[in-house]
What does this fold into?
Amino acid sequence: MNVAELQKLTDWLIDGGRSAASPKNFMAECCERMVAAGLPLWRVGVFVRTLHPEIYGRNFIWKPGAEVEIGTVDYHILESPDFHTSPLIIVFQQGLEVRAGVDDPASKRFPIIEDLRAEGVTDYVALPLPFIGGTVNASSWTTKQPGGFTEEQLAALRSLAKPLARVVEILSLNRMAASLLDTYVGNSAGERIMGGQIRRGHTETMNAAIWLSDLRGFTSLSDRLPAETVVDILNQYFDCQVAAIKKHGGDVLKYMGDGLLAVFPIDEYVGDEQQVCGRVLEAAHESRASVADLQYPIGDAVERFRFGVALHVGRILYGNIGGGNRLDFTCIGPAVNLAARLEKIASQTKRTIVASEGFAGICRGGWSDLGEFPVAGFSKAARVYGLVDEKSAA
It folds into this structure.
């Protein structure tokens, strides 16, 4: 063991591992420094739980001479037999160290040890990575050294686990903050907030295609079904749209009961108006098909659903709006107001997809002129277009 290198590594960890710009680089440099200090490492894993609606945790796997592998696991892992027979569950649930030598008969209770033996591994130890907030995450360390880890090497790993946990916690909190912002305000808004746009009045104008939709008959649905059922229906209904919106470059800004507001920014990085509006229309077609296929059994009956979406394009004001320290990152402007009015016209005309004259003019083809409609709050009537493959209102 190289005591001087171990001290340098400890100091580097205490300083936050600043020479590594990303979690992946940090994992690689940390393990390489450990090997340089005399730790005979083979496979190293760091396992961190997340605060995410779909992802239970992330894992970082290092092997000498290979790229760090980064993976995620969803909440189904909690039901997985492999997880419940893993040494890591003891670390996560009890915060205890687990030693499992491949020649130790007691290690047979962990199926993964037999797999590691096939790789030539001689020793395995799982160490807790306790966070300041009380959460315990986990790390695993293996070696191919004959006879396994020495007591001196194990002591070094234990001493390094504490400063390692501090850096992992900082990286995890940064990731968690970004993830939560993406979850609750959308990707673009989350990036702007993390970038420092946190004060009321921090806004910018942008050109965007606007998507505003709602579920037909939602008031009646809410009146006759239990609230828990309505929430489940809404979640499945929103799934029909969100996947298509994100796939085609949109950013979901807000859910308003059964309503959904999304924007598709138009700039030199994502494409011109025609390209973006074309992708918006593709997303609308896909969402229409998904909602049409959605079925929800209730007793002996099966609920089917219809929705309407209005598409418009224009300048919006995008940023922080609110009172005091309670802000909302959203978009406002006449273009958003017109999209909201168009969505009502979609319901009035019994259409699924309608577009403003501006949107239909950019994304040409496949439209029928539904005529001019008075628009509340606007001095001029708006010409509205519907898809030719939808029937006109009866």
The mean pLDDT is 92. DSSP finds twelve helices and 16 strands in the chain. Residues 151-185 form the longest helix (35 residues). Residues 309 and 353 are 5 Å apart (CA to CA).
